[in-house]
Model the fold of this input.
Amino acid sequence: MAQSPYQQLEQEFRRVHAFRTAASILRWDSAVMMPRGSSDLRGEQLAALETEAHALVTSPRVSRLLDRADANAQGLEDWQVANLREMRRERDHAIATPHNLVSRLAKATSRAEVRWLEAKQKSDFSLFAPHLEEVVNLTRNKASFLGKALNLTPYDALIDEFSPGLTTKEIDSIFTTLGRRLPGLIQDVIDGQAARPPLDLSGRITPSKQRQIAVDIMKTIGFPFDRGRIDESEHPFTGGAPGDIRITTRFIPTDPLSGLMGVLHETGHAMYDLGLPEAWRGQPVGRDRGMAVQESQSLLLEMFICRNRPFLRYLRPLLEKIGGVSGPEWEVENLYRVLTRVRRSLIRVDADEITYTMHIILRHELEKELLLGELKIKDLPEAWNSRIHDRLGVRPSNDAEGCLQDVHWAVGSFGYFPSYSIGAVIAAQLYESLRSDRPELDEEIAAGHFAGLFDWLRQNIYRHGAMLSTPELIQNATGKPLSAAAWVRYAEGKYLAD
Amino acid sequence: MAQSPYQQLEQEFRRVHAFRTAASILRWDSAVMMPRGSSDLRGEQLAALETEAHALVTSPRVSRLLDRADANAQGLEDWQVANLREMRRERDHAIATPHNLVSRLAKATSRAEVRWLEAKQKSDFSLFAPHLEEVVNLTRNKASFLGKALNLTPYDALIDEFSPGLTTKEIDSIFTTLGRRLPGLIQDVIDGQAARPPLDLSGRITPSKQRQIAVDIMKTIGFPFDRGRIDESEHPFTGGAPGDIRITTRFIPTDPLSGLMGVLHETGHAMYDLGLPEAWRGQPVGRDRGMAVQESQSLLLEMFICRNRPFLRYLRPLLEKIGGVSGPEWEVENLYRVLTRVRRSLIRVDADEITYTMHIILRHELEKELLLGELKIKDLPEAWNSRIHDRLGVRPSNDAEGCLQDVHWAVGSFGYFPSYSIGAVIAAQLYESLRSDRPELDEEIAAGHFAGLFDWLRQNIYRHGAMLSTPELIQNATGKPLSAAAWVRYAEGKYLAD
Done:
């Protein structure tokens, strides 16, 4: 029997999925396994796979099939209708930017990334400035094309690539609330914590024992080691694809909990990926709902569940039994203080969950101004330094700990930064609903029972894949529109309570 | 400036290379890293990559460009002309078999491989027979299409896939000589060795120390660890691609040298791949010259160089220093006896280099008869058992150690088996020329100096890539046509001398 246009589209996007997941495994391999000198060949492989996936999505055949499927949508199920919408969304995003601009951006970001690393190592912004300028100019063009195609403002179009359905309006409203509340909160928390500083975790746990503890917890959580792995890499990430999920972390002998916290963060991502509807796998509607929701899942597990007392009651005996450590510094209360320490610091990736948002607000402001041309490239270092000082009371002594610290802009990821903090805000709102639906949560976590937590997430987040937009998904899960309120309640409750 | 048809072809084949090497890394990953439950997704990824590479090679665009490039070949260099010939060769092979038959074969072999494993585990040929029948029938069709397209006999067309330019005529002539000489040789060697049995290597070397020894030797040989890896897998193989070569082996605590011999075998393959001309990389003419030459390189290093006294003089101190073993059984002469022991045995992959060829001659005979319909599938087990008994004096007690031991036929690899023994014959002929050109070879190897060996191989084999056919390459390197004579001299000299 001849296949319907919709069925043919499913086949095409299944092939796209095969190319993309192959590329994802190869990127994992690059970070974890590949010999250092093999990056040229890998670059050619990834370019071939990504070009092919892009060619498939933007092919005239897919566009024709989309039109024909839309015209014959009456027999389709709801998820298939949503799948068509997501296919069109992908096609629209992929086709909006002229091929020539895509190619210029790829070359410019590839050059800029190399020069960024060099500039960061030498702490010399001038080496990076002309490359950033080129990337900003090209990104501005791209945003303008995308915005026209998607009927969004240019910056919103960039955000939409990462967190579908989210707009500057919502982000600015949330960031305004947080930006107003944070300075006082940070001061209060730091003052409070100064009165009861934690004991240092001086006992060492070898990386192999840290790994054993992490794997033990992942098994308890339900990470499927027959369809996933954990390895080490310089920067922790979640790679692969559902069916073959690969998380990485870094175990440091002198910092016995940072590797574990990295594992829990990535496991939050992985559980989301693994919980996506199996029946929709390989289809656009079967994917996660973008970076803000992804980040909500990693933060929910790491920050909300695990950097919290019930989890630490469960963790402590494991640290003793497997890690072989003991003493007052390993008591639950001290672990809690260590893991919730708030500090004014310069580096985003090392920041605690309270000051982190300040780092993000700064980047969000600056990247909008750069794209609008309101801030000149040459003025970026000073703008960065003075504003981080205004916000956090610390001033970078060089650009490596200032505006050169992140790779995002070099690789053209404008509109990405907000998803970190919007993810935290989503996590707080979900956590509030979760606790209200499941009053026994703390006891369950303390007993090492994670099934209730993940059932709730499966029910309210995972199983929806990309059916709903980001705001709809949150409204649907919590009964409320996305707002900063839950995060403020959470932060105050957790950090000012004792 | 517009690209010439030839330049456009180079670009197309570069993309083919990117897809194929990506698939090669993913196959390595499947064997070494992938979680067991992830094979479905991996199957989709590999199918997408292989389909794409096949589609590129067989595209009308490539055929048009080939015709236009052939018509404008006057400005091309020699290697580019050879590259055009190899491109056409690839296209001809790929296009000869109708798409429908390719797809039926893929499905049949995929089913047959699963049933073969089951049949082998249960030692029940009847479970496998109908699937083998289907694969043989489809392969017969394929061979007939290929033969017509390439102007070869059907079986020669299959051989040409694996070892370009080699034909049944040469193989049969070589195998007739060997088949006549081997029974007496085997008897004489076994009688001679019975008089001086080796001491058992009872001392154990842990896998991690075995690995250290292997890596030490690989470094000395010149394996580039910045563009290659060694790992463990159930079946040793060489994967990846030049620029990112990945060899595997298996280290067994109770068998301290088998893992190392596996490493040396695979390093022989890897050094060939790595020595292929860099300037031709990614092009058909830049590839190796097929399976027989590949096998000659692995056997030359493992059997001819390393299972030999000069290498063992170099190895022994490493075994003592890194492996921590000592005693009379670790003396050079005893190691040599252990590593050159000849036994009449049933399993090809465990066979020594002398009886191995008997296993291959048997398979070559049987697969020709199966394809010609002279041997019925149902009669295969008895034909196998009685002929291996006639040839080697041993009789399988079940089909698992008889006609079910190899996967090759299940996956449709007919015409592959000869390349193992033709590889040994090539190795012997190269080794004879090498020793004559380089009388100091034994001293160099005993001193751990491998540069002379690999310079000779680079000069005579590696640098030619796929410029010459298999027979031309050997004629060119040794000044003689391929024949069994050097192998017989080698075997007699090595195994009957003392």
In short: The longest helix of chain A spans residues 5-32. Chain A touches chain B at residues 14-15, 17-19, 21-22, 25-26, 29, 33-38, 40-42, 44-45, 47-49, 52, 224-229, 241, 243-244, 282 (CB under 8 Å). Chain A has a mean pLDDT of 95.
